[in-house]
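Fold it.
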Amino acid sequence: MVRQLVNADIPSIQFLALGDVHSDLAAIIPAEALIRTRSLISRAGSVVPEIAKPPLPISGALACTEKRQYRNVLLPNGDVTLCCMDFERRHVLGNLLRDEYEDLFEGPGFRQIVDRMNGASGSLLCRMCERATPKLQDQWS
């Protein structure tokens, strides 16, 4: 089937690969038509482990490699969650119908997240996230 698509000479055809490409397919698909992305992730443990195995939890201080704690998600009801990995709404920073955006980063919810990212004990979604990395020094003061 893939060979038929490649041989159809469709100028705009592209193939998306999540992770590794099987060698049989790599031999068929032209390199310029192959778009490679990272492999599937567990979305901080939110996906069934058979689909995407979650990483081992990080203990102690950690950092987000993509600084997602400042790339929040605005929900239709006005709630602002920590990041796009927070499907369960574990870390709601506030609500823009009643809070100013800048205030979300001064409130107790965000301060608690900062403390936990710096190594304080307690539940923190980031500990199971593929975008988190152990941090040796305090970055969030």
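The chain has three helices and seven strands.
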